[in-house]
Amino acid sequence: MINVTDLKKTFGKHQVLKGITTQVDQGEVVALIGPSGSGKSTFLRCLNMLETPTSGTIAIDGIELTNPQTDIARVRQRIGMVFQHFHLFPHMTVLDNITFAPIEVKGIPPEAARSKAHELLARVGLSDKADSYPSKLSGGQKQRVAIARSLAMEPDILLFDEPTSALDPEMVKEVLSVIRGLADSGMTMLIVTHEMKFAREAADTIYFLDDGKLVERATPDSFFTRPQSERAVRFLEQVL
Ligand SMILES: Nc1ncnc2c1ncn2[C@@H]1O[C@H](COP(=O)(O)OP(=O)(O)OP(=O)(O)O)[C@@H](O)[C@H]1O
């Protein structure tokens, strides 16, 4: 579903991604882990062209995002993104946050969009919050609304950039359990995370990035019990 070839990204003189090549299958759940500054978020952001790659190619279902002739806005509709800091619209209710893009971008009739939003709120356990404003929600609730908002666009791929890093510890579990449910439902997902237990339990594949390179790509069992590189061994010693 996603094909990445020799992806490089440079900010000024700093080469952050140093040639990443990989493929992600439909329904695959990938956890991106690695030291701070290794390029995990940059890699994720390149996948929906929030960052423009310096070189290399990215194709989604054969459509090359890196081809200047590709209609990026259209392909991006198929790729949802959930951020560390939620990015909800503060002046809109939860329901309006979820229905805004389906109505305005996709042209879904408002009644249908609202009905779908209620379904999604039930799915993330927030049926009673449809008319609340984001400021009245906890961090965990905001993040679950952000997930429902992404799902409302019916994406084929969901990208999560450290979805629990800004949350108080007691809220991490509720958000991870929603993400876990999505993983089990067959959604294709890439998740930058520092939650090793979650990565181990929920992912099909671990990507270990270090210094802009995809150093290891392995099943969780293999990565966590038999890391192949010295760098991964050191990293796991520090975080486990
Ligand atoms: N827009 C930008 N302009 C300049 N440098 C950037 C930009 N975005 C990221 N970088 C740099 O690229 C490097 C990799 O950043 P990135 O956020 O991708 O790492 P990460 O592995 O996700 O780190 P963390 O786990 O700390 O979030 C860092 O040195 C960062 O300072």
Automatic annotation (TrEMBL):
SUPFAM superfamilies: P-loop containing nucleoside triphosphate hydrolases. It comes from Cohnella terricola. The keyword ATP-binding applies. GO terms for molecular function: ABC-type amino acid transporter activity; ATP binding; ATP hydrolysis activity. CDD domains: ABC_HisP_GlnQ. This is Amino acid ABC transporter ATP-binding protein. Residues 2-236 form the ABC transporter domain. Keywords: ATP-binding, Nucleotide-binding, Transport. SMART domains: AAA. Pfam families: ABC_tran. Gene3D superfamilies: P-loop containing nucleotide triphosphate hydrolases. InterPro entries: AAA+_ATPase, ABC_ATPase_HisP-typ, ABC_transporter-like_ATP-bd, ABC_transporter-like_CS, MetN_ABC_transporter-like, P-loop_NTPase. The keyword Signal does not apply.
